[in-house]
Write a structure and sequence with these properties.
About 45% of the residues lie in helices and about 15% in strands. The chain is α+β, with helices and mostly antiparallel strands and about 600 residues long. Helix 18 (about 500-510) runs parallel beside helix 19 (about 530-540). The chain is elongated, with a radius of gyration of 29 Å. It starts with 13 loop residues before the first helix and ends in a 17-residue tail after the last helix. Mean pLDDT is about 80; it is low at about 95-100, about 300-305, about 455-460, about 495-500, about 560-565 and about 600-603.
Length: about 600
């Protein structure tokens, strides 16, 4: 969401960006004035503020309620996060234990804060990092599988801020529990098939223009590939983010503190002796573990999760379809984990759902499991499609089908079958809904649409919502029951932000209504609630009639469910022929069989 909001926003006053950055990248002693003016906020959010200045981690609540709570910033949260994340000045923390829990507060690491925290906290961060390193390498050392091995990257000079950006890339590629950051030091992990998660530690000394890398060397693991990965990442940051091109010499650290230039050792490693960095001739035995590294074939052991898989072109939406396809492996890994977690909750729901419970209890259980599906698999698909649109928008030379075909192939993968799995899950839950839906849940027409969206300027665009509201008025005027009463039409006025009461109404009405008209523009597929409406309607009592609006391609949906009359605009939904089709259906039905609730509409 954050990076997507960058595309349509123009900042006329650069000072505004500087002011926003100063609120999260600062020394605490110069920033306390901010709280003196807001004593209540100091009391309410002191814990989050203390955490920020002891670990460098900023919570989303602190950003919303305190740091960026002023009118100048409060409506531009997504834009600012996207801007600073793209510039590698902060990185969202991920935690494998979070799963799909939407209630977990998002947190962001701001590496530049580490420099300004107290010496006591700096030492604590260093201690935790070194403890994590020792714990990480202990199993390998114990089994004598691997040994630590180090190398240095020597630059002619390093610009201030490189460490912050390199740390952001590393942290976004590892989980919260396995990633650590301390002043000038970062610990992250790479996944190696034959070994599992392998720790990598690097220290960036900008004053000496050195980056030192330490990892493991063993069979199935290429330390040289890790070093080259970090070197390529630094080159990318210097060139793409800072507009610099700075060459580096790679120095490998052998036994007895001997150092060798990698470029020279590669040429003479099979000889009896090599020259060290001081030009003295040394026995090749002084290369230590590096001798083994350099004599065996280099392994591409970190191909699927190397740091250089983060690209500026990915962050800002410039990947070609070929580059975009490389993301499929990451989708597969995430889906496998998400699928396992959801299966546990679905199985628990089936085992504990009691048909003899009262109606409210059963509805409550159904709402809970449906919200789980919304916040995990639906959200997963929505994010993939949003990423798809980002790269399609940034590459006008390619058609949407070039990107959408990649998504379609993944969603219909014969082994994983994400789309079919989700369909089966919703189908199983919807069978329970049949016994609990009532007349009050049944509308003649249910209008499904993507609702209000950010316009990139701190405001909101209501174009689709206004258009659909006009369709609603036409339906209410033209569609009549046998007794000439108007047909009730469900129209989500609040775009799913009004809480559980409206969510309950939407979920059961999407299942129980007779005619579900889904207006699917490209943004429809980026909304997890819209996807849930679609799947519920597909398994519900009524007829699902999707219209593709300004979207020639629908990779999320099975092709056999798309309505024949594909619309280039909304006119097809109010054409005389289509209205007559609906009227022929309702003229044979009675008003008393439908909901008496009236939903207000504000346009």
């Amino acid at each position: 969401n954050a990076i997507e909001s960058l595309k349509d926003t123009v900042v006329l006053n650069p000072q505004w960006i500087i002011d926003a950055a100063a609120l999260i990248m600062h020394e605490r002693r110069y920033h306390e004035q901010h709280f003196k003016k807001k004593k209540k906020l100091l009391k309410m959010y002191r814990e989050g503020y203390d955490l920020m200045h002891s670990t460098g981690v900023v919570g989303e609540v602190l950003l919303k309620k305190v740091l960026w709570s002023d009118l100048r910033f409060k409506h531009m949260l997504e834009f600012l996060l996207g801007l600073f994340e793209t510039a590698l000045l902060l990185s969202e923390r991920t935690d494998d234990d979070m799963g799909g829990n939407s209630n977990v507060e998002k947190k962001y690491l701001v590496p530049s804060l580490i420099r300004s925290i107290s010496p006591k906290h700096q030492e604590e961060l260093k201690r935790l990092l070194h403890c994590s390193w020792e714990e990480g390498i202990a199993p390998y050392k114990k089994d004598k599988q691997a040994k630590p091995i180090s190398a240095k990257l020597l630059f002619s000079w390093l610009p201030p801020g490189l460490f912050d950006r390199l740390a952001s890339v590393c942290i976004r590629n590892t989980s919260e529990e396995s990633g650590r950051i301390a002043p000038n030091e970062v610990l992250y992990r790479i996944k190696v098939e034959s070994l599992g998660p392998v720790p990598v530690q690097f220290c960036c000394d900008e004053s000496l223009d050195i980056v030192q890398v330490t990892t493991l060397s063993c069979e199935g693991m290429s330390a040289l590939a890790v070093v080259e990965d970090i070197q390529r990442t630094i080159d990318s940051i210097l060139q793409n983010e800072m507009g610099l091109s700075i060459e580096a010499k790679v120095v490998i650290l052998g036994n007895e503190d001997c150092t060798f230039f990698l470029s020279q050792v590669k040429k003479g490693m099979k000889e009896i002796a090599v020259k060290n960095t001081e030009g003295r001739t040394m026995a090749v035995a002084h290369l230590g573990m590096w001798l083994t590294e350099l004599t065996r074939p280099k392994l591409e052991c970190i191909k699927n999760n190397r740091l250089t898989y983060w690209k500026l072109s990915d962050a800002v939406g410039r990947l070609s379809p070929k580059e975009f396809e490389e993301k499929k492996q990451g989708w597969k890994n995430k889906w496998k984990k998400l699928c396992d977690e959801c299966k546990i909750e679905i199985d628990e729901f089936k085992e504990t759902y009691i048909v003899d419970d009262d109606l409210d209890s059963r509805k409550g259980r159904l709402i809970a499991i449906l919200k789980t599906l919304v916040n995990q698999p639906m959200d997963f698909i929505a994010k993939i499609w949003k990423d798809t649109l980002k790269h399609f928008s940034g590459n006008s030379e390619y058609k949407l089908e070039a990107y959408g075909g990649i998504v379609t192939a993944f969603l219909n993968d014969t082994q994983l079958n994400p789309l079919k799995t989700i369909d089966d899950w919703v189908g199983g839950v919807s069978q329970k809904m049949e016994a609990v839906v009532t007349k009050d849940d049944r509308y003649g027409v249910f209008l499904s649409h993507q609702g209000i969206k950010s316009d990139g300027y701190g405001g909101q665009s209501s174009a689709m919502k206004i258009n659909v509201s006009l369709v609603k008025q036409i339906y209410e005027d033209k569609l009549l029951f046998s007794g000439n009463e108007p047909v009730p039409v469900f129209f989500d006025n609040d775009s799913m932000v009004a809480g559980d009461h409206q969510i309950k109404a939407m979920l059961f009405s999407a299942y129980a209504s007779d005619q579900i008209i889904a207006f699917m523009d490209n943004d429809f597929f980026t909304k997890k609630w819209c996807l849930m409406e679609y799947f519920l309607a597909k398994h519900g009592r009524g007829t699902l009639r999707p219209f593709l609006v300004d979207s020639p391609y629908a990779p999320v949906l099975p092709q056999d469910t798309v309505y024949d009359e594909v619309a280039k605009d909304l006119k097809a939904a109010t054409s005389g022929r289509f209205l007559q089709t609906l009227q022929n259906y309702f003229i044979e039905r009675n008003r008393e069989d439908y909901s008496s609730r009236v939903l207000s509409v504000e346009v």
